[in-house]
């Protein structure tokens, strides 16, 4: 108990240590840490009255809002699990999540996104819940109430946040993260991002993704200010950065260009943003930041299951591998399918252990056993150690080809093919082979002239010989499923088969 | 297991992630991370051969050396506990430590400091141990060897380091720190000190104190370089800073003046030191650092039992309380003797919970129960929350006076008395009182003229009235035990008694 530190504990400390600091800004709402703490206590009591006890789930249907942070903290106070649903999903997809997670309470916000489900009898209106929580006279409990600050609360190793991840096995899965993992991850961001007291984060990215949530929580941990806006809107981002003196926002690539365009007339002062360099105009509007995180163009590798970022380019100045080096609170191993570590320079699965790791998926015992084989979390992604010890992320390990007893990962061969100047796109499949069980086949779309021999030679000089394609087929375009090749369609069209385990 | 991260795990990761980084420099010895990892593995095997298994203790008798870090890491690999003894102690004091800790192995270094004990039969020579560890052919074990890297090692919650602390209850006690606590504390230093890859720390302070050890471990965690020197020597510090491009050393006050004097002729380039401002000459020789840690003149509050620092002034720019705010990984409460939190502005005991806390004292079950009353670690120190939420450290809570049902802590009243311009030194005791049970009595040494009424009035205007002395006695000097007043002698000489609990 003496070593436990939950998200709720962090809030209880800030209520004492930072009585004058603004914790939350959201439209008209502006709360100091003591005010946020008091609201969370009331909300926890109201949720408890609806049967939300330790281990029960609370689902949020709505866009970004301070309600997301308040519900998460109230669940932490109760030992319950909070899940912000992806509001971009279809109603059918949302319905799957509701059935899968079986939440004790679903809280919705009056918005278009969540409207289709709000007709269900079990959905609670957040505004009504908060109103009731504020108004109700709660009796003082005779025994210590775990929802009360100061009394011994839940342990920090129990899950507190559930985030649904990509449907890599055909359905989305809810990754469970404990307070211990979330706070360890936040601390690693504080280190690499060199976040200081006074940090103000604009939550303009979706909070159902770990990318925004991880900064929201790091800002909470350092006692900074979280500003919420429903979703990305370039004008509103400019207005809020100016008004709230925002230090960082969830902005990348085209979003930055949109902000630059929205502020073309320099109507807003964005100089409080201490940001990575992007373009001349952007660099003029903002203040360049020299933390390792910004110096390294924010490179790294991560996924929800490791709490966010597993490796940081900022920890590896001049790195050979673009994913950089592991966070100070984890270990990484590049493992073969048999659990043995592959030598430096060879491709294997990126596996991890450490303080930031998730606690498995909700209600997926078999998948959890698979993912934690040999005591290491298997990310499902391929990587390689470079001679300088840094890590290169190769691509998702979607399927494996077995040729002459050797493992060939399509993603690795595709990466090399795509580095050929004449190749527009490429996919690699395994076709049945009498002698080798499977042979590597490349399906390639060209943007300039190149012979099959050219392409095979390009791979042969860059990878182990058994990885080079034995067959090459030129096509107009590669069929896709989201961002990845549609391997089932490719197998059907180009004779794929004999995959190991199939 | 998947969430565990021991000191040994950190080393195993660095051996992969930082194959070209120098981990250790000590005289002629210069080891990369893979070399350090290999030495630690051999050392762990040699220690195991001498009966050092999980939970057993290994004691080091010697000055600073890379051996300290190697033995600590080898113990981490075995689940054993490492203790670097205070080599400034008398032989009798060292003998108490040996009997108290009952180590399986005592390792000594051929030095004057450790010589008196080295005649004992059970003392191992470090050089001989390392030689044997390097030469021996260890059979490959049939079952996974927990001393082997890669195999599941001990959990990170078991103690790995024992540091003896002040004899506040009449004998020194060994505070036990786990890998989890040490690495959480290191991470808080990485945050506040903004340590980056490439950090090089000169271990010139004693490694048997948490003050130097905590920087040694933070340097290990970020994958930097630890330079060892037996003890503080100003010339040697200059030489090593220049030769190894040291980023930080364990230097304060007079030590800095000595380094400035040693480098008066600017023989050495000390510009790699990114340090806090101290004097014009020092600031010219070194590079000013603007991390929160340095900006705040390194203020804060800590003790071995919390892993090092509990609060940092660097986390509280413009703070009212000089101890600043808690590290991001702990909670602090100012508690009354009954376990209730005292209101802001009132003095109570500084109590703590969180990731950096120790695991109790070795073999002190009763003391451990006392120190962790109500689920909070009781530091034995008095503090106060200021209106801005920051913390002021008042002084050690050595004893308490009970007057009219109110608690009066001598340290608090003494602090105020000593702020009077005429007071050279002061001590406060409780004397029996018919009406109030005890009355506050001040024993004061003066450096200028002042009346008893002046002194009482000085306290009355600064503290609650019941804390002001009802009796004042002027003396030549205050008897001391170490740095604190000798209260037993004061009670005997000035009529003290009726203490609560006595």
UniProtKB/TrEMBL annotation, chains A, B:
InterPro entries: AMP-bd_C, AMP-bd_C_sf, AMP-dep_synth/lig_dom, ANL_N_sf, ATP-dep_AMP-bd_enzyme. Residues 412-481 form the AMP-binding enzyme C-terminal domain. CDD domains: PtmA. SUPFAM superfamilies: Acetyl-CoA synthetase-like. Pfam families: AMP-binding, AMP-binding_C. Residues 12-362 form the AMP-dependent synthetase/ligase domain. This is AMP-binding protein.
């Amino acid at each position: 108990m003496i070593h436990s530190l939950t998200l709720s504990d962090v809030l209880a400390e800030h209520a004492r240590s930072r009585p004058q600091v603004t914790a939350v800004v959201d439209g008209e709402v502006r709360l100091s840490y003591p005010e946020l703490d008091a609201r969370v206590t009331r909300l926890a009591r109201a949720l408890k009255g609806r049967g939300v006890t330790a281990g029960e789930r609370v689902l949020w249907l709505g866009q970004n809002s301070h309600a997301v942070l308040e519900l998460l903290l109230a669940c932490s106070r109760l030992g319950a699990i909070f899940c912000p649903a992806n509001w971009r999903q279809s109603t059918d997809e949302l319905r799957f999540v509701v059935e899968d997670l079986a939440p004790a309470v679903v809280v919705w916000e009056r918005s278009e996104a969540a409207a289709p489900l709000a007709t269900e009898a079990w959905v609670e209106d957040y505004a009504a819940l908060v109103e009731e929580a504020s108004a109700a006279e709660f009796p003082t409990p005779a025994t210590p109430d775990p929802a009360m600050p100061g009394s011994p609360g839940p342990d920090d190793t129990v899950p507190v946040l559930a985030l649904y991840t990509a449907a890599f096995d055909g359905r989305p899965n809810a990754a469970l993260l404990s307070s211990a993992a979330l706070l360890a991850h936040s601390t690693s961001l504080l280190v690499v991002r060199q976040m200081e007291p006074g940090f103000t984060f604009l939550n303009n990215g979706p909070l159902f993704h770990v990318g925004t949530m991880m900064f929201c929580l790091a800002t909470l941990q350092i006692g900074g200010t979280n500003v919420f806006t429903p979703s990305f809107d370039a004008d509103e981002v400019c207005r809020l950065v100016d008004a709230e003196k925002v230090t960082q926002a969830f902005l990348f690539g085209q979003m930055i260009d949109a902000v630059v365009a929205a502020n073309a007339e320099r109507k807003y002062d964005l100089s409080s943003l201490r940001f990575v360099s992007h373009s001349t105009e952007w660099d003029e509007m903002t203040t360049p930041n020299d933390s390792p995180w910004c110096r390294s163009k924010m490179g790294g590798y991560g996924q929800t299951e490791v709490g966010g970022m597993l490796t940081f380019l900022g920890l590896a100045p001049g790195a050979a591998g673009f994913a950089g080096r592991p966070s100070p609170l984890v270990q990484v191993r590049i493992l073969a399918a048999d659990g043995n570590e592959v030598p430096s320079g060879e491709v294997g699965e990126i596996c991890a252990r450490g303080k930031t790791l998730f606690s498995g998926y909700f209600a997926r015992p078999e998948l959890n056993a698979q993912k934690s084989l040999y005591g290491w979390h298997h990310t499902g992604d391929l990587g390689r150690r470079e001679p300088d010890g840094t890590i290169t992320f190769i691509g998702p390990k979607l399927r494996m080809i077995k040729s002459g007893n050797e493992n060939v990962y399509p993603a690795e061969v595709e990466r090399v093919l795509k580095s050929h100047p004449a190749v527009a796109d490429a996919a690699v499949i395994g076709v049945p082979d009498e002698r080798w069980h499977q042979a590597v086949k490349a399906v390639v779309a060209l943007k300039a002239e190149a012979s099959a021999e050219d392409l095979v030679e390009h791979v042969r000089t860059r990878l182990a010989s058994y990885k080079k394609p034995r067959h090459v087929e030129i096509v107009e375009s590669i069929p896709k499923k989201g961002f990845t090749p549609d391997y089932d369609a490719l197998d059907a069209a180009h004779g794929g088969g004999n995959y190991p385990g199939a």
